[in-house]
Amino acid sequence: MKKILFGFSCLIMLMTCQEQTKFKSLKVTNINELNEALKNCKAGDHIILANGIWKDVEIKFYGEGTKDQPIVLKAETPGKVTIEGASSLKLGGEYLEVKGLYFKNGYTPSKSIIQFKISNDTIANHSKITQCVIEEFTQPDRDVTDHWVEFWGRHNELSHCYIAGKSNFGPTIRVFLKGNEHIKNYHQIVNNHFGPRPRKGGPHGETIQIGASDTSMTPSHTIVANNLFDRCNGEVEVISSKSNFNEFRNNVFFESEGSLVLRHGNYATIDGNIFIGNDNSKFIGGIRIINTGHWVTNNYFYKLKGESFRSPIAIMNGIPKSPLNRYNQVTDAVIAYNSFIDCKSPWQFSVGSNVSQSEVLPPSEIRSARPERVVMANNLIYNEVPDEYPIINYDKVDGVTFKNNITTSENKSEVQPEGLVTKAISVNKVSEHLIVPSENINDIYAGFEFESISKDIFRTARTSTQNSIGAIVNPVPENTVLIDKSKYGTQWFKAEVSRAEINTFNVSTAEELKSKLNEATSGDIILLNSGHYNLNTALPINKEITIASNDKNNKVELIFSSEKTAFEMHPKGKLILKDVILTGNKAQNAFTTLDKNMSKAYDLKLENVDISNFKSVLEVSKGSFADSITVANSTIKNCDNGFMLNKETNNGGDYNAEFVTINNTYFDNIGGTILDFYRGGYDESTIGGYLKFNENTVTNSGKTQKDQILIKNRGIVNVELSNNTFENNPVKFIAILWGEKGQKPVDNSIKNSGRIEIVQNLELKLMY
């Protein structure tokens, strides 16, 4: 009998080997060979892209593989095949797999880099992108919309990829649900490392968006699991869930300036995720909840200081009878077994309540529907330094039931439910960021279907004899860490690059300055020896560079006769200018961005700098964006205008800079406005920019300002205006502040300079 079975097994193996010989592995070296191979591919085939640069290629990968014999398109060596220039990849068919490609030094000529469809009639299903990298493959024009990966069809997967650096308009990953062939899709976005996404300066900078307003009531069943979101700062929503039955499990959000947002759609599961902030940022968020039926369980929140839309748990007010594209009321949600460690006011209710703005908003925009039938149970709030206001409420909290929650600080909040009890507990620091109660707290509330919460964040079983309030049940598995970057992304790509050695150059002439600026690498320092430097051309800034006087007590003077600008700011340009004098001839600006193709942000820092005789200090272009502009201890005089950050006039919520800080600086004889910082459009999810104008002196300025406003900050959400002196400025207004956003002047001295006015409700153009 054994001989017969052995013979039968050999026969099967022989047949299998004979079948496998029909499949081929074909290496291709150019796009024509690739297209020919794709035209003739069959289930099980492996098409191998030869190592090298594949530039300006638009690949259409169509084939009919099977579950056991997918068609594979892969790099000869992972990472050695780079897709560059104007390139894209589209998939159509069944059971296709793409592996080991590296997209860099380019951008897509279409609306996506990778798209799980070739056309509306040729859609990919059961297909996978894995072990790939997309790095800074971003549009030259930040205003151009694209998505780096578009999901269509069903049962598709993005896994073990590294994706970072998108700076233009549009979510990085977008899941579409337009048509029955795309709903109930069960897509998987798993085990990826989403690296830094820079601040965009407005909406539409999400890392992942699942669905859209018009399809938000459709079932998606997309799974987002075991990913690392690493400083994904594009906008206030890191993930925007806009469809039904999506799952978000075991992801790590590290210092990401936004939240996981259940923006539209219902019945999401958010379980076992980790949110890590720090003591230095108020912009790092947690989970924001809208709509019905969500379960938020076993999540761990550490050092989150965000407020309102970015608070650790933000439960919003809705709009009664809300249209699909606005805010539905929160109902029937469960927030249970979560841990909040050293967070600031972690529970915030009725976020977005705006009844007070009814004089400038139509009734269809008023968010007055409070959360109903919400259960908050078995949650732990621990603070090493007491936080006596764990709850912030923007409306009544009468639709929330609190059961068996513990806080370690006295609760002095306006809302003081019996189900939030103050209790001292001891904790252990297990590893970096991981604080765990020394022993289980087993006074558990057994709510409806709470037995389905059968495991904790580390997959330890919750049983009748071993359970605990919070996300973690003791004992914690040995060697537990919250972030292990080796678990995410590709096996072959290293995201962290060691910084090059910083060089310092000493120069004595204008020609030497220009030469060394061209020669320098990012991070280098150029020191100016004493004297006067006459410059008849602009200095381009396309890297991180410091230019400073060698002797800060003997400032070097840079005298510009260039046609348009003194310094030309390029994408990724970061200029630190210290202890110098800049003099123009009123024919140019001191700093100007490129007219177009400002694909990435720039930074500008001025310290102890004297600036005079320019048209504008800073003139920007539409689409340009500064992550930060900092001016300190400087003098600016005899210029037509100051800082002109006012080119995003489409009233879509965009703006030209994130952080603008001007401190201890003297402005004299500025003809127009000192600063024009503009954000238009009533988009409540755009919660920037940030202006700090403190301890400055402004004199004899504003003579030519038509609007009679010295500092224009229209629509900017966060404004500080304190301890300044304004003297002899012939304007009507120094500034107009937005009272609804808490803006108020503090300790300013005003003489013959108009007034600072507070407008409680600012009327802006509706975007919806």
TrEMBL record:
**Domain of life per record:** Bacteria
**TM ranges:** none
Q: SUPFAM superfamilies in the record, alphabetically?
A: Pectin lyase-like
Name of the protein in question: Chondroitinase-B domain-containing protein
Instruction: Specify the species.
Output: Geojedonia litorea
